[in-house]
Amino acid sequence: MDQQYMVFLLLLLLFFLFQVQLVAAETSSQDFSGLQSLTQSWTNKPPNWVGTDPCGSNWDGIRCTSSRITQLKLASLNLVGQLSSAIQLLPELDTVDLSYNTGLTGTIPKEIGNLEKLKSLALAGCGFFGPIPDSIGSLKQLTFLALNSNRFNGSIPRSMGNLSNVNWLDLADNQLEGPIPVSDDQGQPGLDLLLKAQHFHFGVNKLSGQIPPNLFNSSMILKHVLFDNNKLVGTIPHTLSLVTTVEVVRFDRNGLTGEMPSNFNNLEKLSELYLSHNEFNGPLPDLTGLNSLTYVDMSNNSFTSSDYIPSWVTSLESLTTVILGDNQLNGTFNISNDYSNSLQLINMQNNVITEYEPGSQTISFDVILAGNPFCLENGVSQKSFCQVPEVNPSYSTPQNNCSPQTCSNSQISSPNCKCAYPYGGSLISRALSITNFNTSDYKDIEQSLMDSFGLHSLPVDSVRLSDPVKNSSINNFQFTLSVFPSQTDRFNRTGVLLIAFVLSNQIYKPPEFFSPYFFTGSSYGYYGGEPKKSSSGHTGIIIGAVLAVLAFLVLAVLAGMYAIHQKRRAQRTKEKNPFANWEQTKNSGIAPQLKGARWFSFDELLRCTNNFAKANTIGSGGYGQVYQGVLPSGELVAIKRAANESRQGAVEFKTEIELLSRVHHKNLVSLVGFCFEKDEQMLVYEYIPNGTLMDSLSGKSGIWMDWIRRLKVTLGAAKGLSYLHELANPPIIHRDIKSGNILLDSHLNAKVADFGLSKLLLDSDRGHVTTQVKGTMGYLDPEYYMTLQLTEKSDVYSFGVLMLELVTARRPIEQGKYIVREVMGVMDTSKDLYNLHSILDPTIIKDTKPKGLEKFVELALRCVNEYGHERPSMADVVKEVENIIELVGFNPNSESATTSESYNVEKGGDVIHPYVKEDFHYSGSVPSVKLEPQ
Ligand SMILES: *[C@@H]1O[C@H](CO)[C@@H](O)[C@H](O)[C@H]1NC(C)=O
Ligand SMILES: *[C@@H]1O[C@H](CO)[C@@H](O)[C@H](O)[C@H]1NC(C)=O
Ligand SMILES: *[C@@H]1O[C@H](CO)[C@@H](O)[C@H](O)[C@H]1NC(C)=O
Ligand SMILES: *[C@@H]1O[C@H](CO)[C@@H](O)[C@H](O)[C@H]1NC(C)=O
Ligand SMILES: *[C@@H]1O[C@H](CO)[C@@H](O)[C@H](O)[C@H]1NC(C)=O
Ligand SMILES: *[C@@H]1O[C@H](CO)[C@@H](O)[C@H](O)[C@H]1NC(C)=O
């Protein structure tokens, strides 16, 4: 028995050592649970994702900075699942790369917009679909955005115009439709605001409408402007020529019409111009000044010319390829003698050319005139320039001075003749500017790839390019790229993730003629190549013995843990009755009747708030602290933890949670659960992201509200309160209506919070005298204060004060002045805006006159009538506010009119908030006084 006891103690010791290690984890528990929620439903996660410490134990693809998860580099892992809103639970992320996981599907959650620190987002080549969320515009830090090669539909959100730092914007190869958004005079953003962007890749979508002239201007620094393969109509705007930095322009394969702008000549850096497959007409544009031009394709249009071919065709020094086939070019095709040496091809097929004058020298480039009247003449039809040469590129990187191995197990012989499993995919040029590859061109691509991998110390032995294919329908050019591992015969996950990242994030820079490019990676099925350990004879026995001992220890520890677990379970079952504590407390009455709210253990809440860490605090007041927490499900909650002195008796606490759990309304903050254990009283609420109305009005939260939003907040709060008064059974009087108790959700819907002082209005209580006046100075109904009779009309009074606060953005009592008296003092109904200009919040009367404001103030003043019976009911208030909103021209019942995307977040902006102006800090600590009658 004793011995068993010793063993048990030993095991216990081991167990605690193990525990201690877990506690010493490096990863913030908030991030760990965030990552878990995010990846919960994913399959094919890397096998080393075990334990609770992604940062400390170097999980594949997860990178951290001082215990916070900052990077997810998970490209090409063959992940299957969805990108859930839990992504917002990793708020420190600066880099997210989920590219080339075709099994990641579904829509992009709007919560992605909450990742304020995100700099790079790559979701290329996945299976995502649906709209690109408007909230993407909130990613102010973003410099790199690749959403190409998915199935996104809907329109390009104009909020993208807010990505003021974006350099790389790739939305190509999706099903995006509608117009190209540009900013308008109403201040709505558009793509023209992207003054740091160098890459507009919008090809292969269904964009329609005209190309807006103000899409381009001289402040821009665009290099690649790709709008090919869409449904754009109209002309190319003249403004394009203002962007003198452009190098590649693709407008091919649209429905564009008209003549070319005449001022293209400013585009000194323009190297590739693709205008084919449109309905352009008129003369060929004058490109004489485009000294960098190498490749121009204007085929398949209706260009005409009056009997000569423009001189630039032969005079431009760097020009290699001119494709003018399938147009209406007529007259004589005439090549001057001083054509440039770079020229490789002039394609004039299928025009109406009747003469060909090659000049006196033999020419060193190809001319294609097939399909012109000239080639129908006898004697020339067999000439090579009347044929269309077959172009069938074929290439595969040759062996590097060695003889290829015969490999087994589907390994492949690398260019260095080593058998291995390569990682690969397609390397695709969006604008290939050479017609005929030379050996040196292939070598350039291969060398640039090796240089790039070398620069990042990736374990790459060699690369092979093979299977070149030109996709003529969209005009792309692709290779198969195989990357071979060095040292071992296969990559581990880290290797693949890093190679894929270099390609997905455009860290690899190809030679100019191949640029811009993109890559789509295949999944890699050969992981796991740990070098095999030789185990023979002696060593074998030792290893065997060690393993046996280890196995025994593990079993023993497991047994110990099991025992402890069982014991704890027993304990927990006992504790599971949350009301056990009531039973223990004398006179506590029967257990509470809860609807939908759950019981939390103290430990549970400890875990989900990071041990009530300071960083999780989101508010504090007389009652105690409010913490933000993340439940294991990923749900965000706000936990109100009562301070010692504000703890209530068990009965009061029970009453409160019963009350809270009973009310369910979209304008009331709902209770998720509670904790009543170890002398703690905690309430767990749904988390409301945008803080209090007070913080908005004071400018503290950075959310600025215009007049219509203020009306909607009024309406929401009134509906919530009206529900408490009229639909809750028994009715509930809030008793502490104030701007600090109105919270704003992500759509700026108002939610009434903090029923801490609420009173159930039991019939027996109606009109009864209470013993204690509770509430907040400035909002307190004077009638209640004097008569101690509590009715719903006391809430109406407070609500009237709140309404005045909304129009003036002043605190109810400020520098000794009472808002109700101030308003009544200056009000003159015979004058414009009732003469209230001096007292109204300047920002709501800045531009336009706030419609319905007079009615709103009248209603507020009726609410603060001296006599309760003369005040309207909350239901009346709801109706009247609805009428005002209709008057302003909005539908009071449309929730979506106010989305989180459309509000103005001003952090350190130039809006001056009245509170700030008066150097009066309206921060969270307005005293919530409890007045004891003398
Ligand atoms: C986008 O695609 C989904 C299905 O993939 C479809 O249900 C939806 O209607 C589409 N939306 C638009 C705007 O075309
Ligand atoms: C864009 O940003 C501005 C300024 O921050 C903001 O006012 C506007 O609402 C945002 N627009 C969209 C569509 O996100
Ligand atoms: C270019 O457009 C942006 C956004 O519309 C504007 O801020 C800027 O002043 C314009 N620059 C010029 C030179 O017109
Ligand atoms: C070539 O086409 C232009 C425009 O259609 C026309 O004006 C001109 O007369 C034509 N020239 C010849 C030689 O047919
Ligand atoms: C014009 O378009 C057709 C059909 O897409 C294509 O076969 C032809 O090669 C194009 N012409 C030129 C000169 O590229
Ligand atoms: C993965 O491969 C790289 C390079 O070959 C190596 O440095 C690293 O230690 C490997 N990682 C694991 C977990 O084996």
UniProtKB/TrEMBL annotation:
ATP binds at residue 640. It is found in: Membrane. GO terms for molecular function: ATP binding; protein serine/threonine kinase activity. Its main location: membrane. The keyword Glycoprotein applies. Pfam families: Pkinase. InterPro entries: Kinase-like_dom_sf, LRR_dom_sf, Prot_kinase_dom, Protein_kinase_ATP_BS, Ser/Thr_kinase_AS. This is non-specific serine/threonine protein kinase. It comes from Lupinus albus (White lupine).
